[in-house]
């Protein structure tokens, strides 16, 4: 069974408006309220790819209830450990007139050691047949070093670990041989103390460093340039299709969820990467994540090249 872990879920308020000016009332065109958090998105994508999964996490208040209820309505089993305070609400605003997007992301509630201990006890029941995908930021009260605890637990219990995290601790967690890591290009550079141009040759060199450090597979989101996949047997790269971007929130999660589904179902890696790029791109032109009904038209624009292996 695949378990997703969201340690700082959110409700995202997505707003579309023609203009936005300071110190005045701005009338919007439309809005959408979305249950979110990176692991939540991955769970929804897995479900849409026919992969049953369980969504785990922490949070608080009526906002957490909204997310749990949404997942239940989607047919996704879930268990969120509740603490004081409220799960955060983020605001994403697309301003049409100047083609800009404003992202207001809040920190989330304080999670107590007692609540985190309850979650850890459940994670300690996972075994060799399970995969755990931990995605996104951590709420207040959860140190980034929790990634290392999860890495150690994965080796102790025998489950496969998937990491999508910008924290520097993700590099140290590579020593626990995660099945898959999914940084974007900027995150991969920061993992290894690099700065400057994120060209493909640099990404491949850093990808090899991640593999040498212990990662079994690495999937790198390259934004408008597409995506890169690497393991010790093969290196694949695919371009991104041309789209009109509406909302970038969830695009990376969509790519990860789609790729994870293909990996779990033992599908061809090149075909899986191609669909993952198409799905992430489709999400970026929607108010919320793709339902895969319009990915075929994007697939025709994507070419997967094998660079190594």
Can you offer a commentary on this structure?
This protein is of the alpha/beta class. The strands form three sheets. Strands 5-4-1-8-9-10 form a six-stranded parallel β-sheet, sandwiched between helices. The mean pLDDT is 94. The protein has ten helices and 14 strands. The chain has helices at 38-48, 61-73, 113-123, 146-157, 169-173, 185-191, 200-213, 251-264, 269-284, 296-299; strands at 2-6, 10-17, 30-36, 53-59, 77-82, 88-95, 100-104, 131-135, 160-164, 180-181, 218-221, 227-230, 235-238, 304-308. The protein has one domain: Ribokinase (UDP-N-acetylmuramoyl-L-alanine:D-glutamate ligase, 3-Layer(aba) Sandwich). Strand 4 (53-59), helix 2 (61-73) and strand 5 form a beta-alpha-beta unit. The radius of gyration is 19 Å and the shape is globular.
In short:
The protein is an alpha/beta fold.
The CATH architecture would be: 3-Layer(aba) Sandwich
Oligomer: single chain
Number of strands: 14
Give average pLDDT, whole number: 94
CATH level 1 class label: Alpha Beta
How many domains? The number is: 1
Q: Order of strands side by side in the largest beta sheet?
A: 5-4-1-8-9-10
The gyration radius over C-alpha positions equals: 19 Å
Largest sheet report: 6 strands, parallel
Topology as a string of helices (H) and strands (E): EEEHEHEEEHEHEHEHHEEEHHHE
Topology of this structure?
Blueprint: E1 2-6, E2 10-17, E3 30-36, H1 38-48, E4 53-59, H2 61-73, E5 77-82, E6 88-95, E7 100-104, H3 113-123, E8 131-135, H4 146-157, E9 160-164, H5 169-173, E10 180-181, H6 185-191, H7 200-213, E11 218-221, E12 227-230, E13 235-238, H8 251-264, H9 269-284, H10 296-299, E14 304-308
Parallel strand pairs: 1-4, 1-8, 2-6, 4-5, 8-9, 9-10
Antiparallel strand pairs: 2-3, 6-7, 11-12, 12-13, 13-14
Helix pairs in contact: 1-8, 8-9
């Amino acid at each position: 069974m695949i378990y997703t872990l969201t340690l700082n879920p959110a409700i995202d308020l997505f707003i579309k408006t023609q203009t936005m000016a300071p110190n005045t009332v701005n009338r919007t065109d439309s809005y959408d309220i979305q249950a979110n958090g990176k692991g939540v998105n991955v769970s929804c994508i897995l479900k849409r790819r026919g992969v049953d999964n369980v969504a785990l996490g922490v949070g608080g208040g009526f906002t957490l209830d909204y997310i749990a209820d949404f997942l239940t309505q989607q047919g996704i089993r879930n268990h969120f450990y509740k603490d004081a305070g409220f799960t955060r609400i983020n605001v994403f605003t697309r301003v049409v007139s100047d083609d800009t997007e404003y992202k207001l992301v809040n920190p989330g509630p304080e999670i107590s050691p007692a609540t985190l201990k309850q979650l850890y006890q459940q994670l300690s029941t996972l075994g060799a047949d399970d995969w755990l995908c931990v995605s996104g930021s951590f709420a207040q009260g959860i140190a980034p070093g929790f990634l290392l605890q999860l890495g150690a637990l994965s080796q102790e219990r025998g489950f496969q670990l998937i990491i999508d995290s910008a924290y520097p601790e993700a590099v140290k967690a590579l020593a626990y041989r995660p099945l898959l890591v999914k940084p974007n290009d900027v995150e991969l550079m920061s993992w290894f103390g690099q700065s400057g141009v994120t060209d493909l040759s640099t990404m491949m060199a850093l990808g090899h460093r991640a593999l040498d450090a212990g990662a079994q597979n690495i999937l790198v989101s390259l934004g408008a340039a597409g995506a890169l996949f690497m393991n010790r047997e093969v290196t694949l790269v695919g371009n991104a299709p041309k789209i009109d971007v509406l909302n970038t929130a969830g695009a990376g999660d969509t790519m990860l969820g789609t790729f994870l589904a293909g990996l779990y179902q033992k599908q061809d890696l090149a075909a899986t990467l191609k669909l993952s790029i198409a799905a992430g791109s489709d999400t970026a032109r929607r108010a919320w994540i793709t339902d895969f009904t319009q990915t075929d038209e994007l697939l025709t624009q994507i070419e997967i090249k094998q660079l190594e292996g």
